[in-house]
Structures are given as structure tokens and as C-alpha cells.
Amino acid sequence: MVGEMGMHVRGSRRTWGAGGVGRRFDPDRRCASILLAAALVALPALSLAAEPVAGKAAAAPLQFRITEGQIQNAFYQHGDIAAHLLLSSGLQPRILVAFPAGNSGAGVWFEPTAKPVQWTLDKLQGQHRTVDGRAWNGIEAEATVTADRLVVKDAVLSSIRVLRDYQLEQHYPAEVAAAPQLSSHSVHWQRQRLDGAPGYAIALSTDNGSFVREEGRIVLRPDRAGAAIHLRIAASTGEPPLTPLAHLLNAQAQPDARSQDVLRFLSYRQKFLAGSWRFDTYFGRDTLMSLRLLMPVLQPEAIDAGIGSVLARLSPEGEVAHEEGIGEFAVLQHLKDGGKPSDAPIYDYTMIDGNYMLAPVAAAWLLDDARGRADARAFLAGSVDGRHRGDALVRNLLFVADRSMAFARQPVYPNLIALKPGKPVGQWRDSNEGIGRGRYPYDVNVVWVPAALHAIGRFLDAGLLDAYTTPAQRERLHAAVVGVGVWESKAPALFDVRLDAQQAAGQVRAYATQVGVGDTAALASLDGKALAFPAISLDAQGHPVPVMHTDVGFELLFGTPGAATLDRLVGDVVRPFPAGLMTGVGMVVANPAYADREVWPRFGNQAYHGTVVWSWQQAVMAAGLKRQLARDDLPPATRSLLGKAQTGLWQAICAASAVRNSELWSWTHADGRYRVEPFGAEGAHEDESNAAQLWSTVYLALPPPAGIACH
Predict the structure, then answer these.
(1) What is the rounded distance in angstroms from the CA atom of residue 501 to the CA atom of residue 531?
(2) Which of 28, 94, 322, 524 lies in disulfide reach of 351, CB 3.0 to 4.6 Å?
(3) In this predicted structure, which of 29-43, 207-221, 248-262 has the lowest mean pLDDT?
């Protein structure tokens, strides 16, 4: 099944050319582009042209496709145009176009169908329009759909965050509603942004079907029963375009065309996008972790742009912004909060992990990498929001130093770094159940704070902060660095989970029965011994939440644990699930087998951060194992364990290589085997994954170890 899925995905991914995919429009029929123009004729002062346009770059557009389950994804980037077209087949069809410009989009959702609908996408090209003298950029696509009838449920044109909420909760703000303009062969929606800026449009037209109103609903039918309906899809946005990075990868990047395509689509001078379609804008944590893992193969221009984008969005106190609200989402929020239609960006500082990632990632570039070190002073002297980048970096370092002092003075759990009051999330497992309803995350307290303090010390030693700090500020930073030993010696013990041999085996047997997987290999891996592993978090009372997790990979990538600690951390996660985290299709990011039974369903394989596989978490573990194996101070037994773990992990990575660029995936289990299940393919899944995810491209800097070939 894994092999079949891999062939299916690879077979459907292609560079578009004259050949196209699927059935073409009959040139003897009425041209769908004429129908589209007719549909838009009533729009004021509008001109419409497909690429190429005079004055535009002559370089070929970036075009690629990815199919996952019943979702076809087509990506297009050229000059001012960047768009992601998504077509969902099955019983819940939809058409969605996401634009990195303004994190905007337009989508048409259809009512559930009695029989599965099947889309076939043909050619796609860029589209430039002028509306009231202002530029709109988008795409046109030709497709066919097999359906007796399609009933339009609604169309949503706005910020991707509005479309995201509609996909999940089926509602959107009334003020962004768009009225359909209907003719017999076309329907279109267009609206300005709420503040009067250029907005969004989507149009559907057909040359062998008709759109009619039936009981207040718009219905699309073929002219001939059983015929596939030809559709032309056009969508555009007036949001300001982003500028693709001209120099992105160096010659050391792995020759993985799909990963390179995805990374190019998500990389811009202004920022890196977290993922498409659902996160088509800046996310601080995603940017930092992707930069760290991709650093060896990125051009300096790209790394500078990424770190600079994080520094530009720091809070006045020095916190790293998690996400930005831009475009119409910002307009909506400003109207709600103050009644003024402003599009000034709104930054979300709920997440706490990014605050402590910035220093070690910046140090990896400005201190450890010869390219970054050579220009470190020039980089810090560069401008961000009218001030030096060095000033912004120091603001973050002082924030970290101040927050670390309480635990260094008195190492008790209330002095650890907690989620913000009233917030159920705060690190990368940012769903409500992500850290088991805990308050003190493992990764932040055991890995990120010590890593940040070490980085601060190294910046001070290098003298890079002298131009941006006062003597008193340097003293504050030095005082915090002194406390790193307390963090490293005391914090991990607070997260210890320990079970005797009988308890561990009993939990694994019961859990395996509950979720319907085998337990023979898992029990054998326990070998009748007691078990100890770090909790995913501490609850509000300081009790460990006994869920095994992949966040120990951060320790391998950023820390220097002793041999005994390595033996325990690595030995735990590489055990077969459900004793550990390894399955035949990847390493699940959480395993609740050792928790109370009432916790089990909250971490199922339908949960966003449950027993599912996240591509970038495997990459973190792979990079961490490689880093630890490069050490020369480990005993042979530990090195042997690390080597076996590396081999087993890469075998799992390669087994699911067809979905490696996805955000995450789930699994099914039958006949003793695990099989990949695209996340979002089943109604039970609580969300859907992105087909293009920034931190899933990091394998471009991670070649498989010798003897392992991924295809």
C-alpha cells in the first residue's frame, strides 16, 4: 500500500507543459475563456490577460502538482503571481485557491454528493487583471469534474484564516459575504477588501453544462447525462505580491525536485511561508526551525532574510511573533477592536517556544557557520524598523535572561517556563491536547532555555553584542548564563516518568488491544525491564504527563547529553510502537500508552498531535542523531545504539517518502502492517494537512546515511 501510494503521488506530480494532464477543452465548442469574460463583463474598468505579459520576467514559471488522497494540489509562481489551487474529490467537493499575497484566498464549497466526485486538472496559467486601474494577480485553470450535479454550498473570499475557519467550522464573518453573479454558463464572485483596497475574485464557467437556481441554490449540471463537465476556474487577488528569493539553494542541496519546488514556492524576500494552503504566511517557530535544518544548503541571502523577518516582528519586550495577521484578517480585527479599517499587521505572541529558539538558531548562523560569521557584524548593523538588527536581537536575549533567573535561583517547578495564563497552547504541539493539558512543556524547559543561555554566552564571548548593549545589560546577560548549569542539572529530573517492568508491559498490552495493533515486537523491545522516559509536560501541580514524545530530538540537535542520557532517550523512542514511537510508516510524535486510559483517545491517530507522523519531527531526529554520531567522546555501545536508531529511522522515512513534503500523515493497520493514511482524508481527522510545508523540505540538507536509498 505504501508503495502504491508513492507511485500514485509521484505519478501525478509533474511540471506542466504543452501536454497537460487529463482531457482538454474541445476547440470547436464555445470557448470557456469567452464565457469567463462574459461573466466578468459587468465589473468596472476591468482588463484581463493571461501570462506572458510584456515586461514580465522571461524565466519559466515554477509549476508543480502534488496529489494526496482525494486532494489535487497545483502550485504556480511567476513574477507577481503565486497561487495554490486545490481540488477536492470524493463526497465533499470543493475548489480553493490560496495566495501568499496578503495570506488571501477564494474558495467554492459544494454540498455533499450522493456519489463520489472526481476532478481532473488540465492546464493552468497565470492571470493578470486590472480592476479600476489597480493590478490583480491570479490564475486560470481548466478542469473536468464527473458529477450528475454539483450544488454550491457557499463561496468564501477573504483571508486564508477566514477560509480556514470556514473549512473547520462552516461559518465566516457576515461582512465578508460575496454575492454570486450568475449566467447560464458561469458564476462568479468578486468583492473589494473591507477597507476598500483591491480584494478577491473567483469565477467558474463551463462550455458543456449550465448553472441554474433551484430552490435558492446554484446548481451545476452537465448538458448530457453522464458527461464530465468542463470547467474553467479563474481566481485572483489584489493584495500586494511578495518577491520570490532569487538565490535560495547552493550546490549542496539534495537533488529532490519536489522538495526544491515546495521550498521555492514558500520562500520570499519578505518572509518564509509556513505551509500552503492553510498557513500561507510568516510563522516564527516554523521559520527558525526550518532555517536551522536547511542552513547548510541555503544561500546567505535566504538565511539573512529569514532571521531578519523574525527580528522585524519581535514584541517590544523581545518575544518572537508566532503568527502574523495581515490583509483582510488584520482589517477584521482592527474593526472589531477599534472600529477603524486598518490593515496594520497584528502579531500573535501566544507561543513561548520561539522566544528561546531565536538565540541558538542565530548563533548557528552568526557564530558557527563560516559564511554567516564573516558578515555577522554587518548583519547586526543592518536596519529593521528603523533600528539595528543587533538591537532587536539583544531585546530578545534580555527577555530570555530575565525569564530564566527564577529557576536558576530556586529550581522548583513553579519557576519553570509555563504556558501563558489562560492559554492551552504555547509550543509546536499547538492543539488543545498537544501536551496532554500540561502547563510546563518539556522542550521549552529542558532544551530551549539551556540552548538559549549557551548561545547568549557565546555571543558575549565573541563581542558581537558590545555595540548594542550597555555594561549593565551585559552584566544581566552574564548573570543569566551562569545559571545554565542549574537548568541542565535540575530541570530534566522534574519530567522523569518511571514504570516498573510489569507496569510498562501491562500498559503496552492494554493499549495495543485498544487501538488494534500488534504488541509482540513492542513487548520484546521492553525486554522485561523497567522503563523511564521524559514526560511531554508537567501539569499545573508539577506532575509529569506520561506521554512519550519526539521532542527529545531537539536535545539531540541542540544539546550535548551524556552517554547514559543518550542511551535512555534514543532507546525509548526507537522501540516499536506502542512501546516506543516507531511504526512502519514513520515515527509517531506522541505515544499515550503509559498514561491513564482516559488520555488514550485524546492522542489517537486522528488527532493533530496524536499518534501521527510529522515529517519535520523525523528530520529533527535524523539531524540530531547525525550530530551526536559526529561526537568523539561517546563509548562504543552508545555509538552502536545511535547508529541502529539512525538506520531504523531512515528506513521509516524512506518508506513514506511519497508524503514527505506533507505537514503530517496518519496510518491504518491491517494484516500486521502499517499503511500511510493522508491526514484529513477521513472525516474523523480533526483537520487536514498542508501539501506543501516549509519544515518538511528540510531533507534537502539531510542526505540518507550510507547504504540507505530513498526514492
Answers:
(1) 7
(2) 322
(3) 29-43
pLDDT at 202 exceeding the cut of 80: yes
Q: 87: domain range?
A: 2-237
79: nearest Cα among 97, 65, 58 = 58
The answer as to whether 431 is a domain residue is no
Least confident window among 14-23, 519-528, 686-695 = 14-23
DSSP state of 436: T
Mean pLDDT value across residues 37-41? 42
DSSP E strands in 374-464: the ranges are: 383-384, 387-388, 440-441
Residue showing cell 500500500: 1
pLDDT, tens digit (0-9, with 9 covering 90-100), for 289-299:
999 999 999 99
- CA–CA separation, 103 vs 100, rounded Å? 5
Would residue 273 count as lying in a domain? no
Separation between Cα atoms, residue 453 and residue 356, nearest integer Å: 9
Q: What is d(CA 552, CA 633) in angstroms, rounded to the nearest whole number?
A: 20
Higher pLDDT pick, 680 / 614: 614
Please give the distance of CA 415 from its chain centroid, rounded to a whole number.
31
> Helix 389-409 to helix 484-494 angle, to the nearest 10 degrees?
60
425 pLDDT higher than 70: yes
Of the chain, the percentage scoring pLDDT greater than 90 comes to: 86
- Find, among 304, 520, 504, the residue nearest to 393 by Cα: 304
Alpha-carbon gap, residue 402 to 480, rounded angstroms: 7
Number of domains in the chain: 1
Does residue 539 have a pLDDT over 70?
yes
Which has the closest alpha carbon to 247: 202, 213, 297, 283? Answer: 297
Judged by average pLDDT, the poorest of 30-34, 584-588, 691-695 is 30-34
Between CA 120 and CA 65 the distance in angstroms is 12
Question: What is the spatial distance between Cα 306 and Cα 557, in angstroms, rounded to a whole number?
Answer: 20
Task: Give yes or no for residue 361 having a pLDDT over 90.
Answer: yes
614 located within any domain: no
Owner of C-alpha cell 470557448? 31
Question: CA 624, CA 632: separation in Å to the nearest integer?
Answer: 15
Q: How many CB atoms lie under 10 A from the CB of residue 92? A: 16
List phi, psi (to 5°) of 38.
-65, -35
Q: Coil, strand or helix: which one is 210? A: strand
Grouping H, G, I as helix, E, B as strand and the rest as coil, residue 358 is helix
Residues sharing a CB contact under 8 Å with residue 251, sequence separation 6 or more, in sequence order: none
Give tens-digit pLDDT for 126-144.
Answer: 999 999 999 999 999 999 9
* b/e burial code for range 175-214 (CB count within 10 A of at least 16 → b): ebebebbeeebbbbbbbebbbebbbbbbbbbbbbbebeee
State the pLDDT at residue 682. 55
Among residues 550, 535, 553, 546, the alpha carbon closest in space to that of 491 is found at 535
- The crossing angle, in degrees rounded to 10, of helices 471-482 and 484-494 is 40
The runs of H, that is alpha helices, within 66-211 are 160-169
Asked if residue 527 is part of any domain, the answer here is no
| Angstrom distance (rounded) from CA 272 to CA 313 | 13
Average the pLDDT over each of 22-36, 62-76, 270-284, 311-325 and give the range with the smallest value. 22-36
Give the CA distances from residue 661 to residues 548, 554, 653, 657, in Å, rounded to whole numbers and listed in that order: 24, 20, 11, 8
pTM of the predicted protein model: 0.90
The average pLDDT across 646-675 equals: 91
| All three cell numbers of 187 | 458564476
Contact present, 319 and 349 (Cβ < 8 Å): yes
SS3 call for 4: helix
- CA dist., res. 368 & res. 273, Å (int): 25
d(CA 33, CA 368) in angstroms, rounded, equals: 55
Give the separation between CA 62 and CA 83, rounded to whole angstroms. 11
The pLDDT value recorded for residue 684 is 52
